[in-house]
Amino acid sequence: MEIIISVLQDTVLDCLKMLPFLFAAFLLLETLEHHTSEKMNHALAKAGNWGPLVGAVLGFVPQCGFSIMASDFFAGGVISMGTLLSVYLSTSDEALVILITNPGHLQDILRLVICKIIIGAAAGYLVLLSETLIHKKHPEKKKEIKDLCKNCGCEEEGILRSALRHTVQVFTYLFIITFLLNLLLSGIGFEKVSGILLSDTIFQPFLAALIGLIPNCGASVVLTQLYLDGIISFGSVISGLSASAGLGLIVLFRMNRHLKENMKVLGLLYGISVISGVILQAMMG
Question: What is the pTM of this model?
Fold first, then answer.
């Protein structure tokens, strides 16, 4: 019972931190839906070319709320898959904070910032370019913000009420999933599992990325601590932190109705993270 109460408290705190970002994202989406015009649509499309770079820079801010907002925007057709991936890949949650609180790791902080932003921006532009070339050959119907409201009964509601409805729905979903996940990890022991999987092998980047895919902000904490303790390499921690999109993946699968598209994002996130980690590990010996 004590474990359940402790996990419940942690889950409440984790989810409450996400609540402002969740509401802000839906409020913006609803505002765009109700007041959008041809000019605004054109401006958003034109600004999309800067999306991966902006996403990579904003994503590195130590707060996984940006990945949640990016997931909402992608589901509503506001940003491209390339921009979404740039945010996911650069997001590090609390990793930066942990490094800052450990004296003597200034070099690690600089390397982490530079590598994550470069990986996020570069991968985002490559995906954006490939999508552009593919869609030119095979035109597809572009997603629209109003697609989020299909069959949910909020089409006739006002902006504020509709945003609140979506926020409550997704917050409830997030809370349940996060609670079950935290309960499972508390029973098994995150550190124990990570230590076993990430023993000194050439497969560290692959395994670190799998740990990073766990939709929980605690994944970045464990990966960073394992790196500081010398258990995993710099390439492996980059691989794990690049795959660590926090709760953004949960929101993506909840809000985006295209399962095939979600699986593509997941596959690209893992593949890019592993390749980046393997390259860095080879370069740094």
Answer: 0.75
What are the angstrom distances between the C-alpha of 41 and each of 48, 79, 140, 272? 11, 11, 17, 30
Q: Are 244 and 92 in contact (CB under 8 A)?
A: yes
Q: What is the Cα gyration radius of the chain?
A: 19
Q: Which two tokens stand for residue 140?
A: 């597809």
Per run of 10 residues, the mean pLDDT along the chain (length 285 residues) is: 82 80 75 54 53 81 71 85 91 71 76 91 92 65 57 61 80 78 71 61 86 79 78 89 87 89 96 94 79
CA 84 to CA 66: how far, in whole Å?
10
Helices (H), the chain: 2-35, 38-47, 51-59, 65-75, 81-90, 95-100, 106-137, 159-188, 190-197, 204-213, 218-228, 234-243, 248-255, 259-283
Tell me the pLDDT tens digit for each residue of 162-187.
778 878 877 887 688 778 877 876 77
